[in-house]
Write a sequence for this structure.
């Protein structure tokens, strides 16, 4: 938690004033560090990571049936109904896979924050896969270098990598106009979007 709090405070010093929603991959203490540095931020744990971590502990013969039941939990549009499905899941699989269900129950507060938003907003915040893809592409540029003469040389390489990757970013965010307007409703006076 101390490490992540240091990183978040460094971001504040660099000019980040506010975070609306932080999607994290389930690192312990990260949500509390985010809420310490940015008290108004809502934390959403990556649902995809939670599913992957859950399936590690489910026997291969049960994976298909378990996933069918689990989809009812995270694909529902209503938090209360999803919580009901989570209880059903626990009744059905809890004795066989108690560790998996305990993980969902313990993380439910941060796993279920996205239920309050509409579908376009949910699509943006339910997973950390896009940022992980960016990191993977940057690593492809940096891993071939044996050493860097300075931190500045690393920054320059990362900058060049991002500029090169920008050429492939041709798809706009789906329903961005609708998404940004809904975020403005959810977070009044916190979103500083310029209309052009």
């Amino acid at each position: 938690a101390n490490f992540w709090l240091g990183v978040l405070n460094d971001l504040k010093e660099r000019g980040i004033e506010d975070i609306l929603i932080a999607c994290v991959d389930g690192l312990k203490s990260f949500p509390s560090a985010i809420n310490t540095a940015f008290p108004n931020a809502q934390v959403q744990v990556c649902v995809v990571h939670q599913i992957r971590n859950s399936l590690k502990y489910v026997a291969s013969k049960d994976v298909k049936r378990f996933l069918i039941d689990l989809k009812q939990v995270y694909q529902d549009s209503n938090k209360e109904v999803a919580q009901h499905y989570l209880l059903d899941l626990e009744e059905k699989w809890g004795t066989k896979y108690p560790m998996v269900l305990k993980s969902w129950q313990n993380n439910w507060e941060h796993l279920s924050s996205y239920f309050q938003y509409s579908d376009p907003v949910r699509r943006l915040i339910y997973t950390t896969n896009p940022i992980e893809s960016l990191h993977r592409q940057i690593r492809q540029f940096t891993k071939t270098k044996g050493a860097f003469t300075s931190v500045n040389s690393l920054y320059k390489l990362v900058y060049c990598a991002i500029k090169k990757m920008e050429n492939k970013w041709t798809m706009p965010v789906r329903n961005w106009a609708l998404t940004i307007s809904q975020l403005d409703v959810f977070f009044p006076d916190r979103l500083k979007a310029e209309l052009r």
In short: Residues 12 and 37 are 8 Å apart (CA to CA).
